[in-house]
Design brief:
The chain is mostly helical and 329 residues long. It folds into 2 domains: 1-98; 113-204 and 222-329, no CATH class. The protein has helices spanning 2-21, 28-34, 38-67, 70-91, 114-140, 146-165, 176-213, 223-226, 231-244, 248-276, 283-296, 300-314, 316-323; strands spanning 94-95, 110-111. The protein has a two-stranded antiparallel ribbon. The protein is globular, with a radius of gyration of 22 Å. The model has no long low-confidence stretch (mean pLDDT 90).
Length: 329
């Protein structure tokens, strides 16, 4: 059993490292594959204990350090695989714990709440995005002056962007330099939101895969009913938006926090929609249309996030469930 676990953990770490490295290709397919880099680590942790997941993190980081510069291995271990392992570890926490020897296997357990997993995923998104902002400032020697760092890098990128897009590709009055600065300022908040969503999506997929293998210790969660964020996330969202208008490094940190909090409120909004539409006769068609709108119109995420905020403030799902019992997710 030890050698089987060792082999699976090492294989998962190598697979995760390969998916991480393929992002350097810069293609749409490579970006899609890279988004699943946390998946092998989570599968190893959920199916073969969190020690297997931790070994997968170490294996992947070591493999990257042999083929690429050491800082990339650190980015992989600390910014991607590490948070993936931590989320999977949290998902397996229960009371009484799984490791308890004096508890029957079929004894009822209180599992780590889904909402707290979402909060920790948002924390991972904030951590990763803050790291990108710090890297940008460190690489330019700008100290804590984020605006200066953006200006330095934008001046480096502007000629290449102008050659790639062409003067006709930019809106009137927008220079390549201005466009580059806008992209760099948007990068940290985008990293916060995308990392948050990526971690939770991979955790969900990993749980389904491990469940199919028969090795999932935790029963499937009714996410649509259980994902109710604590009120502290409302404060984080509001505080982040307020601080965002200060500009400079504080403003960037504000946007990072707001983006990560907004991402989990979008998920709560989707959960709310799933619950409120559970009695609709054309529910599947309506949900399919909703997800198509999300894919083609990114602005719709803001509307769904507002639904999540409204659910936190006014208990939309709780009111609906009080009128009729839940019949599905």
């Amino acid at each position: 059993m030890f050698f089987q676990t060792l082999a699976i953990a090492c294989g998962a770490g190598l697979a995760s490292a390969l998916l991480f490295v393929v992002a350097a290709k810069g293609t749409m397919l490579a970006a899609l594959l890279a988004a699943f880099a946390p998946l092998p680590v989570m599968i190893a942790a959920l199916s073969w204990t969190h020690w297997a997941g931790l070994l997968a993190v170490a294996t992947g980081g070591f493999a990257i350090s042999l083929a690429l510069p050491a800082p990339l291995a650190l980015v992989f271990a600390v910014g991607l695989a590490g948070p993936a392992w931590a989320l999977a570890r949290l998902a397996l926490l229960a009371d009484p714990p799984l490791e308890a020897e004096d508890v029957p296997p079929d004894a009822p357990r209180l599992w780590y709440p889904v909402a707290r997993l979402a909060v920790w995923a948002a924390a991972a998104g904030i951590f990763v995005a803050t790291g990108w902002a710090a890297l940008l400032m460190w690489s330019t020697g700008s100290g804590l002056d984020f605006d200066a760092a953006v200006g330095v890098v934008a001046r480096r990128l502007a000629p290449g962007l102008e050659a790639l897009i062409g003067r006709g590709g930019l809106a009137q009055g927008v220079s390549a330099l201005t466009f580059a600065e806008a992209l760099l300022r948007a990068l940290p908040p985008a990293a916060a939101a995308s990392t948050t969503a990526m971690m939770l999506a991979n955790l969900w997929v990993a749980g389904r895969i491990v469940e199919l293998s028969g090795r999932m210790a935790r029963p499937r969660a009714a996410v649509a009913f259980e994902l109710t964020l604590p009120r502290a996330m409302l404060a984080a969202l509001a505080g982040g938006l307020v601080v965002a208008f200060l500009g400079g490094l504080p403003g960037t940190l504000g946007w990072i926090v707001a983006a990560a909090a907004g991402a989990v409120f979008v998920l709560q909004g989707l959960a709310t929609i799933h619950v409120l539409t559970r009695d609709w006769s054309q529910r599947r068609t309506a949900l399919l249309a909703l997800y198509l709108v999300v894919v083609f119109f990114a602005w719709s995420l803001a509307v769904i996030g507002l639904i999540g905020v409204a659910d936190s403030l006014f208990g939309l799902r709780a009111r609906s469930l009080s009128q009729s019992p839940p019949t599905g997710t």
